[in-house]
Amino acid sequence: MKARPEHFAPAARVLHWTMAVLLIAMLFIGAGMVSTVSERHEWLLHLHKPLGIAILALVIVRLLVRWFTRQPPLPADLPAIQKLAAKLSHWLLYALMFILPLVGWAMISAAGDPVMLGASVQLPAILPAEPHTFALLRKAHGFLAYLLFLTVLVHLAAALYHGWIRRDGVLQSMTSGEKPHA
């Protein structure tokens, strides 16, 4: 049996950093959309929809890569509660990256609006148009977006803790793959 790798597979690292940029962009775009009632934010909505679908597709690819590649182990001396928190927070991130685009798609469908991916590609509605469902999904989408933002902040804080304080190779396993110099 092969030893566990010291760093994530290149495909996992590329997907991680690509999705990190997309998620941060989506959070800012979403904040920009809800911060005003002006029609001037419509271009943000036209950007938000295809990025959401891209994130949905990429998280599926990312889960496949995760299932078919070996991940480096967490440090042996890491307390069990931190290991559990790491596993749970990663699965929460995956769940949110999967659920948020679906809730957004359902919300737009319930509003009776098309989900356009560019000028000519339209996704089918996944729910019938219904104002009460739209209102519920809009609240859910906003709540889940805040939860994603909080989870990303905690993930970033944990990465920096491992990279700058513990210097245990966890952060490097997703960046260069190189062990930190003591």
UniProtKB/TrEMBL annotation:
Pfam families: Ni_hydr_CYTB (PF01292)
GO molecular function per UniProt: electron transfer activity; heme binding; metal ion binding
Transmembrane residue ranges: 12-31, 51-69, 90-108, 143-164
Coiled coil ranges: none
Compartmental location: Cell membrane
Biological processes per GO annotation: respiratory electron transport chain
Membrane association type: Multi-pass membrane protein
One Gene Ontology cellular component annotation held by this UniProt entry: plasma membrane
Cofactor names: heme b
Annotated protein name in UniProt: Cytochrome b
Organism lineage: Bacteria, Pseudomonadati, Pseudomonadota, Gammaproteobacteria, Pseudomonadales
